[in-house]
Design goal:
By secondary structure, the protein is α/β, with parallel strands linked by helices. It has nine helices and 14 strands. The structure holds 4'-deoxy-4'-aminopyridoxal-5'-phosphate. Pathway: Amino-acid biosynthesis; L-serine biosynthesis; L-serine from 3-phospho-D-glycerate: step 2/3; Cofactor biosynthesis; pyridoxine 5'-phosphate biosynthesis; pyridoxine 5'-phosphate from D-erythrose 4-phosphate: step 3/5.
Length: 360
């Protein structure tokens, strides 16, 4: 039995120990306000300052151009699935969607409740083990926007390149936000829930190009209007204050640890170690096309699927938690978000090698 426990959950994910300690230490008296951050009015000078700093730190980490606004929203990425067509499309206008996996399908079915959707390419025929190549995308030049899922959390796929399109490119980056540098100017909008790479549940970050902000259409609650939230510095209503505070700490943690380039290098190092272990064995199997494999959510199977439950139980006993694959997909999934240290993956690889020796 080992003391240290690593959490490979797809989310909410682990947080760095030093961030957890900072939360604990400053909880009773946040920034000398005499009260905890949980009890701060969101309109207080100190809390407004926290929001300004958080946005500034995010802008620095990602080099966000001045013509983009940062919004702090609630409802998770799942709410964004419906809010995108409601905020971005004119009546009757359709949107293009890349059907790359489980989360893209969720985004599509939710968007379809509000507007026509055109699927530009789909990975269904490959059972979502590969991404449709860019030259197969059947883009509609009249679409209101084109939506992609930059990282398919459940299918273990990552889009490696973002095209320059004539329509606004919109990306769900919930599982790989801040894990690699981005060509921001190619995007109309990016959104990401915070609970994987940059904090806890409750906060969804939206980065939107100014020209896409427009008055809320009838039927859209004002709290979910990008324009209304932009106009009020994301304080149209009470923002998720604690989640914002934790994201602030996470952004500073990333800044101290080399920023996005260092996060990207660490993600490559971690995932290479794990994919190599899978590749070098006949006991483990990764059906994903190598070029499309995600460095963030590494999905693999046991060639003897009957051993999956034993694998998961023994892993848990060894301090390797939450390795079960997505409910709809099965197998094993190791989610390697920014706070996951290389030592966690090294331990997993060691465990996998031992397990194969015992059961192979
Ligand atoms: N998109 C992707 C790619 C995800 O991984 C998730 C969460 N697993 C979501 C959307 C949904 O996020 P939320 O639960 O915050 O709505």
């Amino acid at each position: 039995e080992r003391a240290e426990r690593y959490n490979f959950a797809s989310g909410p994910a682990m947080l760095p120990k030093e961030v957890l300690e900072q939360i604990r230490e400053e909880l009773p008296n946040w920034r000398n306000t005499g009260s905890s951050v949980l009890e701060q009015p969101f309109t207080s000078t100190a809390f407004k300052q926290l929001m300004v700093e958080t946005e500034a730190d995010l802008r620095t980490l990602l080099t966000i151009p001045d013509n983009y606004r940062v919004l702090f929203m609630q409802g998770g990425a799942s709410a964004q699935f419906g809010l995108l067509p409601l905020n971005l499309l004119r009546s009757g206008q359709s949107a293009d969607y890349l059907e790359s996996g489980h989360w893209a399908r969720k985004a599509i079915s939710e968007a379809r409740r509000h507007s026509p959707v055109n699927v530009i390419a789909s990975g269904t025929e490959q059972a979502f083990t590969a991404l449709p190549p860019l030259d197969h995308w059947q883009l509609d030049p009249a679409a209101g926007y084109c939506h992609v899922t930059s990282n398919e959390t459940g299918n273990g796929l990552q889009l490696q390149e973002f095209p320059e399109l004539s329509v606004p490119l919109v990306a769900d980056m919930t599982s790989d936000f801040l894990t690699r540098p981005l060509p921001l100017e190619r995007f109309g909008l990016i959104y990401a829930s915070a609970q994987k790479n940059l904090g806890v549940a409750g906060l969804c970050i939206v980065i939107i190009r100014n020209d896409l902000l427009r008055a809320p259409p009838p039927g859209l609650p004002t709290a979910f209007s990008y324009a209304a939230q932009a106009e009020q510095q994301s304080r149209f209503n009470t923002p998720p204050t604690f989640a914002l505070y934790v994201t602030g700490l996470m952004l500073r943690w990333m800044g101290r640890n080399g920023g996005v380039p260092a996060m990207a290098a660490a993600a490559q190092q971690r995932s290479r170690l794990l994919y190599r272990c899978v590749e070098n064995s006949d006991f483990y199997l990764c059906p994903q096309r190598p070029a499309d494999r995600s460095p963030i959510n590494v999905c693999f199977q046991l060639t003897k699927p009957g051993l999956t439950e034993t694998f998961l139980t023994e892993a848990e006993r060894n301090g390797l938690a939450n390795l079960r694959g997505h409910a709809a997909i099965g197998g094993i999934r190791a989610s390697l978000y920014n706070p996951m240290p290389l030592s966690g993956v090294a331990r997993l690889v060691e465990f996998m090698t031992d397990f194969e020796r015992k059961h192979g």
